[in-house]
Amino acid sequence: FLADSYLPFRLRPIAAPQTAKSQSQARLAAVGGALRTFQPMRSYTASVSAEPFLNGTSSNYVEEMYYAWLENPRSVHKVGDCVCVCVCVCARVLVRMELLPRTMASLCSKCSGTRVMQTPRSITFIRGHHVAQLDPLGIMAAIDPGPPPSDIITSNDKLGEERRGRFYGLDESDLDKVFRLPTTTFIGGSESTLPLREIIQRLEMAYCQSIGVEFMFINDLEQCQWIRQKFERPGIMQFTLEEKRTLLARMVRSTRFEEFLQRKWSSEKRFGLEGCESLIPALKTIIDKSSMNGVESIIMGMPHRGRLNVLANVIRKELDQIFCQFDSKLEAADEGSGDVKYHLGMWHRRINRVTDRNITLSLMANPSHLEAVDPVVQGKTKAEQFYCGDTEGNRVMSILLHGDAAFAGQGVVYETFHLSDLPSYTTHGTIHVVVNNQIGFTTDPRVARSSSYPTDVAKVVNAPIFHVNADDPEAVMYVCNVAAEWRATFHKDVVVDLVCYRRNGHNEMDEPMFTQPLMYKQIKKQKGVLQKYAEKLIAEGAVTRQEYEEEIAKYDKICEEAHTRSKDEKILHIKHWLDSPWPVCFFKMDGQPKSMTSPSTGLTEEELGHIGHIASSVPVEDFTIHGGLSRILKGRAAMVGQRVCDWALGEYMAFGSLLKEGTHIRLSGQDVERGTFSHRHHVLHDQNVDKRICIPMNHIAPNQAPYTVCNSSLSEYGVLGFELGFAMASPNALVLWEAQFGDFHNTAQCIIDQFICPGQAKWVRQNGIVLLLPHGMEGMGPEHSSARPERFLQMCNEDPDAYPVSEFAVRQLYDCNWIIVNCSTPANYFHVLRRQILQPFRKPLIVFTPKSLLRHPDAKSNFDDMLTGTHFQRLIPDSGPVCEKPDGVKRIVFCTGKVYYELTRERKNRGMDNTVAIARIEQLSPFPFDQVKVETDRYPNADLVWCQEEHKNQGYYDYVKPRLRTTVDRTRPVRYAGRGPAAAPATGNKAAHLVELQRFLDTAFNLDAFTGQS
Ligand SMILES: Cc1ncc(C[n+]2csc(CCOP(=O)(O)OP(=O)(O)O)c2C)c(N)n1
Ligand SMILES: [Mg+2]
């Protein structure tokens, strides 16, 4: 509530030296008061970050406001009682932060009388979580046994001598005085006045029991008030008998599932949920409530812990299917290599029993890499929202589960949070659930994070955080309801922090006493949450012991029967674990592609002309574009007139035509709208009207598919993961992620290594994502030069030593794990983009894209190369003078990408157009063995050279060489012309760059260079 919009008064400007620090120092010197050191009780480090809204400049601002208010209350804007509350809180917190002398709070004479009670209220709701009973083990305090913050008063405290002067001058005799309640509180219910004793007790009930609420950093008054009323209203946390019995039944399932697995497969790893069994009712509550609010599809991502339990009891995967995963003798039926059981995903549509509505639940498959699935889930959610026109996230939502250590430690969590409110990336609120078992493998939080809570990262997006003792299932259910309502109301992220413990080691085979002896002594004594809750309900009379035991027996029987059935399973079907099924019309019934032919990717002359016209015009009225852009568009129009395309226009033709044909296109990445190299300009900006833009690509045809082009946040891991998830939702979309420079993909390495490269093999799901990676050695230094083709090539699943026997154009594509191209012409780039959609299956496509070629006068394509009947060329043979007398050709230089232009220039300069042939391998993977063979056969007297501009240990050499050798049946050696091996991808010295270039060109054209080499 410190936002300017709520305080539209003018503050006295703060002169430069009057920073918060210098002011407070001056005042400290003046009063010479002793300072109190604040020791937060429940945090592992003594941090003041618990109130980040009073950090830095905001504390400065508040301090100014405080003094203005002291001088004259009318000088500050009043929002009901808020100002008083705010100022009192500020004063106290500033004292605690050592920014104000201790005595300052007592200067606050305006807070006497009926208003004085507002201060304890404020402090309690800000910091009640410090004293709430969050830890089922009760050992957090034992880890860091600091005293409770002394300005938090609980009903156990005496307001006597030792507290006098610290608690606003109040003492025991004030406890029965009656105070008027401010309008901003809900603790009174229908009462407007209450005795102080009652006020303290009610605040305790609201904020200091099993739930600790962190929300005061949210700078929106309405949202804060919304949360307050959810926790302050007397009696708000009451449940019907029906609700309690359902909760107990869910706890029974959650607990007995793990016990069943433990009984049957005691030596198998399963990452059981023991110690956090209330996760299952937590998720089910969120799902029920969201279904009530109209949600039809929920996409979930989660780590290992409790995953099988979630599959069984939340997603409702058939138990026998889960149990047969434990049978080590079953063989897999599908293609692909599969994954371990606690990584598999699942998709299921069913009726929600509480709402009687359809709900689709999917749990995304994920790798071991914790949190990597977060952005993928968000992307898939966004796509589902997009395709069903759910612009506000009312029908589709995501739930992300986290471990405490991973949530705090993994940067991708932060990257994902930062996508949460961006127009092209928001999923309109994610519910995060943290299984906070207070340990990460063997490491305890004191050494695993610097923040007080593992959830502090969520504060960057002002997400409210509900810490809850997971041994209190009703409190868990309550906060989950509030979280789901929050999401439905505000469409923003929210965090539920289930403070729990881990009954076993990291996995069932692990001995936790090696490293956490005291914690585990306590855990051994700990009564299970199901038993505790059942006893509570039996004592209350909500269920009888017999009913409870029957519920257990019923579920055990279900498990036993499923186990018996699972023994009938003879084979494992990975397909049954698909998390993102595509429409059946995309495949044949057996999941195979509808055809194995490759249609032409060309267009008619008319289509090329029409898209070219759109690309060179501004299709709306009264829109002023930048003069430089006018020149670019004129240049495009001239090219269209001459029937040629440069790189940007080739891309335009591909996108424009696919859109016209009904394929949605989404291009995302840093600065993609204009293009890092200022060549693309897909979004035009009116030079006179702020924020007025025009996307000509959306003006191609009346019934075209929409084009989404979006500059992303400055993240690779998060954004690439997001786009991968987006591409999962539908086969009928071309989803492209462009790196600013190709080398930046390595900060998203996990998405590439764990999802894109092996995704289909592990999880039998196809994905057609396209990575555009600017690449090329242009003297720009070690960074920005190489997109590291060697890494992508090394991960191709093709056998370099076997000449494929099947047809090449399609079958080879179908069998590979991804397609890697480095196109040298705009036409070929155009074709490969169109092929990505027109081919009858989906594969990831990696494109090394050029930089200098974007404007290279020779890197242009004629419309003829893009007309109907034309195709992507996997290899572009030499079509020059060498064709006339192939026998006279002494050398064939194979290359890929931009170096082709350097080679042709050098060949011309040397007058060797008749003696050296140059062939471009445009599709590196799968390798065009057949077309390479045509070339090597064509020039029987030529030696074979691979030329690349990259260093020898990088680029393509190690990949291409064995394949070239296989092609010629190892009858001819393959020579190398290129830079020598190096640690860095490129030199930082331009002169050295040019020397290196000339040196390898010399080698490439020196016909004696390899004489004598074996
Ligand atoms: C990115 C990544 N780094 C390391 C690991 C190895 N690892 C597996 S589980 C684990 C501890 C996770 O702790 P937490 O997130 O608290 O989850 P918990 O196991 O306690 O449920 C670690 C370090 C991993 N899986 N992923
Ligand atoms: Mg943990």
From TrEMBL:
Pfam (any one): 2-oxogl_dehyd_N
CDD domains linked to this entry: TPP_E1_OGDC_like (cd02016)
Domain Transketolase-like pyrimidine-binding: from-to ranges: 645-856
The family this protein is said to belong to: Belongs to the alpha-ketoglutarate dehydrogenase family.
Assigned EC number: 1.2.4.2
GO biological processes: glycolytic process; tricarboxylic acid cycle
Top-level enzyme category: oxidoreductase
Protein name per Swiss-Prot or TrEMBL: 2-oxoglutarate dehydrogenase complex component E1
Membrane-spanning ranges: none
InterPro entries named among the record's database cross-references: 2-oxogl_dehyd_N, 2oxoglutarate_DH_E1, DH_E1, KGD_C_sf, ODO-1/KGD_C, THDP-binding, Transketolase-like_Pyr-bd
MF-aspect GO terms: metal ion binding; oxoglutarate dehydrogenase (succinyl-transferring) activity; thiamine pyrophosphate binding
Cofactor: thiamine diphosphate; Mg(2+)
Gene3D superfamilies: 3.40.50.12470, 3.40.50.970, Multifunctional 2-oxoglutarate metabolism enzyme, C-terminal domain (3.40.50.11610), TPP helical domain (1.10.287.1150)
Gene that specifies this protein: LOC112230775
Taxonomic source organism: Oncorhynchus tshawytscha (Chinook salmon)
Catalytic activity, reaction form: N(6)-[(R)-lipoyl]-L-lysyl-[protein] + 2-oxoglutarate + H(+) = N(6)-[(R)-S(8)-succinyldihydrolipoyl]-L-lysyl-[protein] + CO2
Location within or outside the cell: Mitochondrion; Nucleus
Entry keyword set: Calcium, Glycolysis, Isopeptide bond, Magnesium, Metal-binding, Mitochondrion, Nucleus, Oxidoreductase, Thiamine pyrophosphate, Transit peptide, Ubl conjugation
CC annotations in GO: mitochondrion; nucleus; oxoglutarate dehydrogenase complex
SMART domains reported for this sequence: Transket_pyr
NCBIfam families with a match to the protein in the record: 2oxo_dh_E1, PRK09404.1, PRK12270.1
